[in-house]
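Hi there. Long-time user, first ticket. I'm pasting a complex I've been working with (about 695 residues overall). I'd like to know whether the download I got is complete or cut off, because the file seemed smaller than I expected. Thanks.
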Amino acid sequence: MSVTSEVSTDDNTITIKISGRFDFAEQNEFRDCYYDTSPGENTQFIIDMSGANYMDSSALGMLLMMREYLGGNAANISIINCSPDIKNILTVANFQSLFTMD
Amino acid sequence: MNLSGGATDMSENMPLSSKMPTVLIADDDIPNRLVLQAILEKQGYCVLQADDGVQAVDVFSREHPDLVLMDIKMPNMDGYEATQQIKAMSTDAFIPVIFLTATSDSKGLARCVASGGDDFFTKPYNRILLQTRISALLRIRELYSTVQYQRNKLDNHQKRFDREKQLAKRLFANIIETGSLNLPYVQSMLSPMSLFSGDILLAAPKPSGGLHVLLGDFTGHGLAAAIGALPVSSVFYGMTAKGYSIAEIVTEINTKLKMILPADIFLAACVIDLNPGSHTLSIWNGGIPSVVIYGEKEQDITRSLSPRHLPLGIASDESFSRRVEMIEIRQDDRIYIHSDGITEVANPDGLMFGRQRLENVFEKNTDSAELFDEIRSELIKFQDGGAQQDDMTMIELRYNQQQLEDTVFHDKTQTKRAVQPSSEWDFSMGLSADLLGCFDPLPLLIQSVCDMQGFRGQRQQLYTVFSELFTNALDHGILNLDSTLKGTADGFAKYYMEREVRLSNLTDGSIKIYVAHQPNAEGGLLTIRVEDTGDGFDYQENQVSLESNVGHSGRGIQLLNTICEKIEYRGNGNMLILSIVVQKRNIPVAFEI
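Hi, the file is complete. Here it is re-exported in full:
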């Protein structure tokens, strides 16, 4: 199990924690983390990469799927605690223009 | 159309149906047979009978029973022989044969097994035991049939899949042609992980001279990636041949991919334009690792151009950024573009090659001609038999002005229709300041002219003429750019930067383009007049400035001189006339500026 999600007590933040390899094998687990949520207008999604050591381009695709599902430009998604390698993969693809990154 | 040849024989190996199995009893002793028949029929089996071995083989071949009960001693042919023949007839399926024997002598039993028997049963019969043995063997038969059926089905699927893959591969190779990668100044590698690579590498000469290159990396591999590659290559080749800029090409590819691909599939791509006329490299990079420029003079990395944009197929038309960077490039400088598969090559311990190791190869190099091979051999050495993670794609382009200018542009855009009869036509186009800042009319103009008169094989000439005339009117007439700027070492880049700035701030001025065709005895005469609202210049006093004013680097005016009969300025210098003779198949052209 390398994808877990938790909902904060005030129901305004949903944190998805990724650990290990973030790739196509995690597709269903990752999708389930946001599919069944009923986000309000101010719901903030946080993807916590602190446990992730690798991501591939299909994981980038999964992030795009999530963004689209949550309303495209209206989606409020932050990606936090990226290792330098993962940060590099995200910035080469210029994902900082689509997601909030620390 | 049925492509799954051989699928029809599958039915023979379908798992046994729900109908009760048929049992063949071969025994010359009639009372024995009747006892067995009674037992079996009570169980619901269908029963067939044979008096001897010959008859048993005959009934078996006609009726295909599911199980055989075989007596050993029978007239004409004994049970051993009959069993051998029955087993030889049913190599594809498992038909259990149970020997019925009076003795339990081990030699005789061994012979039962040797002749193909699956079990033996000693007389007198215990009804319960016999039933158990029969149903156990029938279960094995059923299992065997199911496995056989599934295996055949898989076999057929595999064959069909292989055939379709081969067909698709051929189609794919025809469409994603990479002929222009065989140029003397280009080295490349493309090692696909699967039959359909997720990476694409395209190169095409421009009608105006120079080269467009696209290196792309789709999310994932295989068919999905291959399908996306088709529109990418057709847009890239088609628009390059028609004279579109890389900014327009990436915009079009992005629109197409956004339309056809699901949200999670995109194309990281780097598109470059090598321009030998201006010694510049234009680049649009969306999601491809930094492009490296290796200076021949410095023997070191002089520039690293990081990706500035989102990959293609993600941004909507409104938010898509087509901004292209332009840098100066010098003779024999080398350009390296690679997919992330290069730096993600892993050794057997799972360690990745990484950017640093790649840069180390550049650093250690002492002969730039060997660089490409050094990178390749370092990668293979590091990989050390480890599994390839991604497609490994890399291209090296050595900037050689002469070779680039000599690169032949093949016009594949025109259909092989008959040449239209030489006819009379004309059209004009007016472009105001706000349009001049964002629209390049050349591809449209050339396409229109080619469509109306079918100037087969003359697209490059037409492109050169139109491009020189229009650029002259825009750069000098409207934007008042000083072409002496281009005389200095890094002048070209400065010139084009200044051009960008002035173009984006343009509020006044317009350009009128008039094109007419008149048939004559030799074929026809094409007249092109480009007129700008600029101040012009004193052409009567200063005929020399024609050379510096038309085109850049002097190449333009030389070309125009060879193509045109007459070149003549009019008005206050914001109009110029050229005339050209074109043969029946090589239609003559006259130009006015």
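A couple of notes from our side: The interface with chain B takes residues 24, 56-58, 60-62, 64-65, 67-68, 89, 92-95, 97-98 of chain A (CB under 8 Å). The CA atoms of residues 53 and 82 of chain A lie 9 Å apart.
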